[in-house]
Amino acid sequence: MRSDRLLATLLLLQTHGRLSAPEIARRLEVSTRTVQRDVEALSSAGVPVYCERGRRGGVALLEGYRTDVTGMTDDELRALVALGASADGGALGTALASASRKLLAAIPDARREGVDRARRRLLVEHQGWRRAPEDLPALPALDAALVADERVRIHYATGDAVEATWRTVDPYGLVSKAGTWYLVAAHRGQPKMYRVSRVREVAATGTPARRPDERGLAEVWAELRDRLQAPSDEVDVRVRVDPAWAPTLRRVAMAVQAGPWRTDGVEADGREVMSAPFRSLVAARAGLLGYGEAVEVVEPAELRAEMADAAARVVALYTMPGDAPPD
Q1: Where in the numbering of this chain does the HTH deoR-type domain appear (predicted)?
Q2: What would the pLDDT profile of 79-95 be if each residue is shown by its tens digit?
């Protein structure tokens, strides 16, 4: 839109002081003639912009002229610019970085130094440790449906499904949680969450979304999140830990845990006794088995028996016929 381009031209001139018409055209991906028309429009609107001929000429603003097009407080500007300077910006990284640059260029010199310092001193990284970025080919189509407030059909594969299935949903919105994107939408009148990386395809319907209630995205998300996190088969697990591994166990929060580790004491052999709640026995077994002999489950007895049984099955799996049994 022309209004966006006029603003972009003004911001470029505020940032750089003077630019040639071809350089402005290159940055905005328009023709030089379009830049000339935009400069005339800015001048007609009262912006003190002028052109100078010659080798050092170009388009410039009257010296000392600045306009604060943001209307934001310093705290608001620092927060937005710092977010735009994030390491990856999540799925909206390009847009955030562009918005950050525009905000920085739009503010007066007296306010810019503090805001720019926040951009350089604060880094927001959305991706979790040792996790590859999600592939999100469906995100633009879902975002377009939200902007249009339309019902959509999604080709979706649940976590344990071999094939995706089509379902018609009425979106509430998109949520980014710890680097993972979710679509919150009503399916057959019931609010649900769908992991965007599992959406294979999006088909527009052209019909308005018909959500079952007037609640906003934040309220519906909170309900779905709390329901997912509610304790069900939660179990408290006590373990003995090799002291060399105890710091690692405390530091690495497993997704299967329902709470942090607690230290209950130290055994005579130096091993630490620690406890933590897990979401279920199965989750605890899966999370702790990988620590091998560094972590011994003390209780509950049922989990201790499951750990022994799982370890025996692993040994049997890797024992070749004729091999001597392990000591």
Answers
A1: 2-61
A2: 776 666 655 545 566 66
